[in-house]
Design goal:
Radius of gyration: 18 Å
Shape: globular
Organism: Brevibacillus agri
Keywords: Isomerase, Repeat
Largest sheet: 2 strands, antiparallel
CATH topology: Glycosyltransferase
Strand order of the largest sheet: 1-2
Protein name: Squalene cyclase C-terminal domain-containing protein
CATH class: Mainly Alpha
Number of strands: 2
Number of domains: 1
Family: Belongs to the terpene cyclase/mutase family.
Pathway: Secondary metabolite biosynthesis; hopanoid biosynthesis
Strand content: under 5%
Order of helices and strands: HHHHHHHHHHHEEH
Structural class: mainly alpha
Length: about 260
């Protein structure tokens, strides 16, 4: 029954242009933005549905999966995607107080190998994409050591065919597990993250673009593999639109960024 952080930013993206033209939409935009900012957890990150619910007492209850079904802590994916919205659509930058808190939270939660764990997608590719695109949108330097470490990690995970693919076992083991094949959505996430960081196309980016271009008509198991997260080790989602939406977004960002730079 609760409103959703991710759906709210999606709605606000859709309302942005119209909000500049009429008062009613402008009012809806402001209410949505105010609510979004009010939902920032005290630790600086954003949850999915509920604010400040990450109590160690709840996660210690003798209920299977209590840590994932009974709490809604800040996550790298929600925090990164909220930052990406605030930076690209709401004019927020690195020196704004909510952004400063969120950036500090993200940098403190980066894994040793350079990745971030994503709660609502599979898993380290998803979290790293969200974190990097969010950091770039609010003005963090591409040369920042944490950014470069994440880029190195992403590049190392690229498959021989130019794509990326991660197993759902990552979500359960809390450790990156290669799928052994590439998926459209995970390739798009990794590619979009690299595009956000690099001012010009790199060999890894070009190989990723080639993979997405070749796989647009594919219809094998990789296009239906679940890349949405539910309950680690128990529930995963294969969103049918993911194979189209995320590649289209990554390809459009590639076109808009590098075509204008050439």
């Amino acid at each position: 029954m609760n409103p959703d952080i991710d759906d709210t930013t999606a709605a606000l993206r859709a309302l942005r242009s119209q909000s500049r033209l009429d008062k009613a939409t402008a009012g809806a935009w402001k209410r949505g933005l105010d609510w979004l900012l009010s939902m920032q957890n005290d630790d600086g990150g954003w949850p999915a549905f509920e604010k400040n619910t990450d109590s160690p007492l709840i996660s210690s209850l003798p209920i299977e999966g209590a840590d994932t079904v009974s709490t809604d802590p800040s996550s790298a994916d929600l925090t990164g995607r909220t930052l990406e919205f605030l930076g690209r659509y709401a004019g927020y930058k690195e020196n704004d107080a909510p952004v400063q808190k969120a950036v500090r939270w993200l940098l403190a939660r980066q894994e040793i190998d350079g990745s971030w764990y994503g709660r609502w997608g599979i898993a380290y590719l998803y979290g790293t994409w969200a974190a990097l695109t969010g950091l770039m949108a609010v003005g963090v330097s591409p040369a920042h050591p944490a950014v470069q470490k994440a880029v190195d990690w992403l590049t190392r995970q690229q498959n021989a065919d130019g794509g990326w693919g991660e197993s759902c076992h990552s979500d359960e083991q809390k450790m990156y597990a290669p799928l052994g094949a590439s998926t459209p959505s995970q390739t798009a996430w990794a590619l979009d993250a690299l595009i956000a960081v690099h001012p010009r196309p790199t060999p890894a980016i070009e190989r990723g673009i080639d993979y997405l271009s070749r796989q647009s008509q594919a219809a094998d198991w990789t296009t239906a593999y679940p890349t949405g997260g539910g309950r680690p080790g128990g529930t995963y989602f294969a969103y049918h639109s993911y194979r189209w939406i995320w590649p289209l977004l990554a390809l459009s960002h590639y076109q808009s960024k590098y075509a204008s730079a050439s």
